Amino acid sequence: MNDIFTLLKSHRSIRKYKPEAVPDELLDKILNAARQAPTSSNLQAYSIIVVKEREKKKALAHLCGDQPWVAQCPVFLAMCPDLHRLERVCRLRGYEQNDRYIELFIVAVVDTALVAQNILVAAEANGLGVCFIGGVRNNPEPISKLFQLPDKVFPLFGICLGYPDHDAIIKPRLLPELVIHREEYREDNFEALVAQYDRIVEATGLYDGPRRKTKSPDGRIVPDEEYSWSEHSSRRAAATDPKVLRAHMRAFLKRRGLQFE
Ligand SMILES: Cc1cc2nc3c(=O)[nH]c(=O)nc-3n(C[C@H](O)[C@H](O)[C@H](O)COP(=O)(O)O)c2cc1C
Questions:
Q1: Are residues 64 and 82 in the same domain?
Q2: I want to staple 63 with a disulfide (CB 3.0 to 4.6 A). Which of 48, 93, 129, 139 is the partner?
Q3: Which of 7, 10, 13, 173 to mutate to test the pocket of ligand 1 (most atoms within 8 A of CB)?
């Protein structure tokens, strides 16, 4: 296995896979190791749907916003927060699950994400490539139907798995000064640090080409040399398009029995 620091620092999402299957034993090994992730109060409030069927992956790729790598990857994992199993356990023991507050929902979402990241690390350590797919929240209703998910279980994000067939760039992350705070939250040199990061990202060519054309919510046009991480991320964070915002999620969760006071 790679040195763990080298492994973590070489993460990059893979969006093109070799046709080669992921051996079942390897997949089981990854999933079983990932299940050992920490979990709030040992509740283990998640489920994973393993998808290998070609037609199902094709349908999913479309429902995820036409992302070809979802159809192309040999294995797709739908990562689902699951408060249904716990509700059944409560009933078995003669209790009523109290999921009226957002806390159990947060627990389930965090548990799901922790297992997912374990899957990513184990997969990459074994030469596989991975891409998380939040696109499952584009169409959560039909995807839930496709998987016959019971109420209180929903697709949070997916994971494409397979042997990489391209060499994606490693995207530099925000400077440590912006994300790691010693003893208290600090914003010293904020603007200079953001500008410095913009220049670092610019040099990678990450936002060259069509990504530069991401629509600004106010129709603003900026020169190419000013379009880097801060412009791209601000456009995303300031988006008003209900599709980008996945504005349907609240009503969807309510329909699935997840509504909070
Ligand atoms: C929860 C989550 C959802 C994501 N959804 C998608 C997605 O739907 N499609 C996609 O191509 N990449 C998706 N990504 C991958 C991110 O775009 C990627 O991690 C980010 O740009 C950083 O790039 P890197 O992973 O190559 O370092 C997702 C990542 C996360 C963590």
A1: yes
A2: 139
A3: 13
Q: Tell me how many helices (H) and strands (E) the chain has.
A: 12, 4
Enclosing domain of residue 109? 4-168
Q: Evaluate whether residue 249 is within a structural domain.
A: no
State the chain's mean pLDDT as an integer.
Answer: 95
Contact 71, 58 (CB under 8 A): yes
* Ligand 1 centroid, distance to 261 Cα (angstroms): 31
Do 70 and 158 fall into the same domain? yes
Q: What is the pLDDT of residues 138-186, one digit of tens each?
A: 999 999 999 999 999 999 999 999 999 999 999 999 999 999 999 999 9
33 with 71, same domain? yes
Distance CA 39, CA 49 (A): 19
What integer pLDDT is reported at residue 221 of this predicted model? 84
Number of structural domains, the chain? Answer: 2
Residue nearest to atom 30 of ligand 1 (CA): 132
Percentage of the residues of the chain whose pLDDT score is greater than 70: 98
Q: Judge whether 51 lies within some domain.
A: yes
**pLDDT band at residue 217 under the 50/70/90 scheme:** confident
What's the CA-to-centroid distance between 136 and ligand 1, angstroms? 12
Is residue 260 classed as helix, strand or coil in its secondary structure?
Answer: coil
Q: How far apart are CA 18 and CA 21, in angstroms?
A: 8
The answer to whether the beta carbons of residues 76 and 54 sit under 8 Å apart is: no
- Using the mean position of ligand 1's atoms as its centre, give its distance from the Cα of residue 169 in Å: 13
185 and 209 fall within a common domain: yes
> How much is the pTM?
0.96
Is 250 inside any structural domain?
no
